[in-house]
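sorry for the late reply, my laptop died twice this morning and i had to redo everyting from scratch. anyway the thing you sent over, i finally got around to it. pasting the sequence first so we're on the same page, its 615 residues, then the predicted structure underneath. double check i copied it right bc i was rushing
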Amino acid sequence: MLYYFPKLEQDETLYSGWSRYSKRTGEPGEAITSSELFGEPSRNIRFRFEKRIDAFASNLPDGLPYSSDYLTANHTLFPLYEFTLPKQKAMEFKRSMKGDERRWIGGQFFVHAVTNLPKFARYCIDCAREDIKACGEPYWHRLHQIRDIDICPDHQCWLEDTNLEANIWGLGLVTARRCIDLTRSPKYLDLETGSYEYFQLLFARNAKYLLEHPAHSLYLENVRERYKSILFERGLASAIGTIYKARFQDYVFSKIPRDTLQKLQEHLYGFRRIWFIPLVPGKRPVPPAFHFLIMYILDVAPNSFIEHSEVIGPFGPGPWPCKNPYCKKFNKPVIHKFTLRYHDGKKYGAFDCECGFSYQTEIDEQKVSRTSVTNFGPVWTEQISKSFGGRNPTTAEINDILGFGCSVLQPYDTAIRQEKRRLAQRNEFRSQCLKLLSKFPNLTRHQLCKKNGKLYWWMIQKDRPWFDEHSRAAKSGNFTPRTPISNWKEYDKNLVRRLNTVYKNEIASDKRPKRISSNYLLRQAGMAPSTITSYRARGQLPVTSQFLERVCESREQYISRQVEYAVRYYVEKGIIPTRTKYRVWFRLKNVNPEIKSYLEEGYDRIISTLKSRKL
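ok and here's the structure:
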């Protein structure tokens, strides 16, 4: 446990606190400092999006109010990027920062939101001077290290680059005092409404607000719905979120001059052509500055955007009620989502209840026009039969029961017959499934697909809850983590034994030879080549590395074994191949003179051996 750690200042990055700690303890080296900070040595200390925050928080001295969640929210850039990510990716990325996961979380996120971060660490000269007056030394600010934002919002001046490359691995712990040059003069902005500098300052102020007020539980899914809701309120989109592109384009040009918009898109995307499609982000994450641009176009400040309701469309907020009078959940909000359907050029919102009752409502531009029943379900069928003594009710009687005056999409008699046919088909497939499962009690769902593909498809598409309840999944849903390796020497010896067995079997095989490479031997031994390669790179498997270097074949050795096999094959078959067929048999490209001599020698041996046999 640490006995001392400096106080983290407002907007200071976690990396800055670590570097100041290293400076005050005499800069003993990255390995020793990381051992003190995290409990074990690490060379994976990053300037942005720091990792191993959980280990650091648990190692802090008593009395410091720094929890893992507090450090992530107040001293990293994660709060700024959280709302630009889907919820699952955001949670994975947060776990990777708190832990020590080395894999990339969400390739699209890093490509579109993080990878083009400023190459060098940056600072504001006026902020650095104020830090020295207040704290005695400058420190790295979060607000100065954001992609696409090159202005300090507090002093309205351009940020300065240091000579510290912030995106490289093995950066070490470098304090701001070492890199900042206070002899420079700040370059202040010449602001004009609608200019490029004006938008830069706007982006910087919005980023500052989000860093100081993290938008918890706000993710890309919610952001997209809020954009559609605002567009609907402005009359720029339909009730179901379809954007009126021409109207939207005119609206954008009324807010931002064309030249400024081209310059902004060049800054954000790297090209000047005006592109309106991504102005409302889809499933692909985009940088925070892009969201700030959309908020400006829609006249929404970040604080009001976070508090904005996501309700759009003519149906109001969900969940929606079941309209079956015979259902126990009648008029209760039990339908959590609706489906858009299209019929004869018209749009419908379809609602399905668990009781089997389904209805759909026609959407006419931005309002609801008509509701109609599409399926009555078994609960309705059973109760209506009792109520009318077995006879079918008229359309007027159905409308009286439902409470809304509309005609059904199909005659009631037809609907009843279809429902009975559907129930009979469901019972038949269920009985087939139970028979198959009783005959093969250990059958998984995947194996059932091989036994009876039609049955499997029907159950998955039409009766999934019942099928999941009565069948067995191939794997458990709980993930079992890999057992850590405690004795590396023993693991190394056992791995060499397995690889040696595979190597001997390949050499002794009378089948067509395969090239003996490290990947081939590891796969045949049931190991993941990437995992073993990472172990070898760390020097944890020295015996395995020596064995693989000794037995792995070069291209010439592999061709030589192939030639020997080809000679045996053609001699045993008694076939004299043509020279072209013989060369094609090896499937070789870019043959060098040495390999060509191997092939010619093997071909001559085949010819001479078979001719001597005939004589």
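The CA atoms of residues 206 and 580 lie 70 Å apart.
thats about all i looked at so far, will dig more tmrw
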